[in-house]
Automatic annotation (TrEMBL):
InterPro entries: DUF1203. It comes from Ruegeria marisrubri. Pfam families: DUF1203 (PF06718). This is DUF1203 domain-containing protein.
Length: 154
């Protein structure tokens, strides 16, 4: 069993209030084109025409060689954090995703990374979590490598 973990609400509310991103810059404001602008808090696509934030995000507490930083989108207005047990909307819209496991030291566990079709995510996650050296999994865009969400064991 596993759960999809969205960005924490307190972190998102701070960014929505103008807190600097991972590079120390204020989040940029833009207008969503619809599909392809997934909010990493509600894990839904930001509707076409809605205002959104674009910012640099590093899903690790400390910088290190494996701590990838990249662009993400957030709703500009408060949205509800995803807490479901099914795949969220943002993991069903692209044909495939990059999935890779990380150890408790926040380093990539080599041999776990795979471009995975969306209808095989559950099976791939189960395969990766079968390894005792994997503490959690990141899901990223297979095309742009953008962070989507974290997957944790239940």
């Amino acid at each position: 069993m596993f759960k999809i973990t969205a960005l924490p609400t307190d972190e998102v509310r701070a960014l929505q209030a103008g807190q600097p991103d991972a590079y120390g810059a204020a989040p940029e404001r833009a207008v969503s084109s619809g599909a392809g602008n997934p909010c990493r808090h509600c894990l839904k696509n930001i509707p076409e025409g809605a205002e959104m934030l674009i910012l640099a995000h590093r899903p690790f507490l400390e910088p290190h060689p494996y701590a990838e930083t990249g662009p993400i989108f957030l709703c500009t207005t408060p949205c509800e954090r995803y807490e479901g047990d099914a795949l969220p909307e943002i993991l069903t819209t692209a044909p495939d995703y990059l999935i890779k496991g990380y150890g408790p030291d926040d380093r990539i566990v080599y041999g776990t990374g795979a471009i995975t079709p969306k209808d095989q995510i559950d099976a791939k996650v189960s395969d990766i979590f079968a390894r005792p050296d994997v503490a959690y999994i990141h899901v990223r865009s297979a095309r742009n490598n953008c962070y989507q969400a974290r997957i944790d064991r239940v």
